[in-house]
Amino acid sequence: MFCRNCGQQVADQAVMCVGCGCPPLAATQFCQNCGNATNPGEQICRNCGCALVIRGAGGAAGGRSKIVAGILGILLGSFGVHRFYLGYIGIGVLQIVVTLLTCGIGGLWGLIEGILILTGSMNTDADGQPLTD
Questions:
Q1: Do 36 and 72 share a domain, yes or no?
Q2: Which own/partner pairs from 72-77 qualify as long-range (CB within 8 Å, at least 24 positions apart)?
């Protein structure tokens, strides 16, 4: 993937471009139907005519809830459920492995993360989108 601002190559899950410091897909959204880039604020894709889903807006489709993620972390954090919910699949699997290898003691990791999510210290999902309240 390439940064829309400076054109430098960035990792697929990068939150920030190393070259210019902006989000790599800043001011760009993509049509969920055809995949073409669309202009910010457009309601309909100019390529296929499909209504666009605007992500990241408070309560919009695709936004993940901070409260849901925090509660999942507190109650089921030892199994990484909150990480799966936020899109961090690799870390979720790692939390399961750590919990099993430490006979459950590693479950404190998920509990602590659940509290951090609810207090606002962790506030984005794997796509870099802010968590909704």
A1: no
A2: 72/114, 73/110, 73/111, 73/113, 73/114, 73/115, 73/116, 73/117, 74/110, 74/111, 74/114, 74/115, 74/118, 75/114, 76/110, 77/107, 77/109, 77/110, 77/111, 77/112, 77/113, 77/114
Does pLDDT of 60 surpass 60? no
User: Could you tell me which residue, 85 or 44, shows the higher pLDDT?
Assistant: 85
Q: pLDDT: is 8 or 95 the higher one?
A: 95
Let me know if residue 60 belongs to a domain.
no
103 pLDDT higher than 90: yes
Residue 33 falls inside a structural domain: yes
Q: Which domain holds residue 40?
A: 1-54
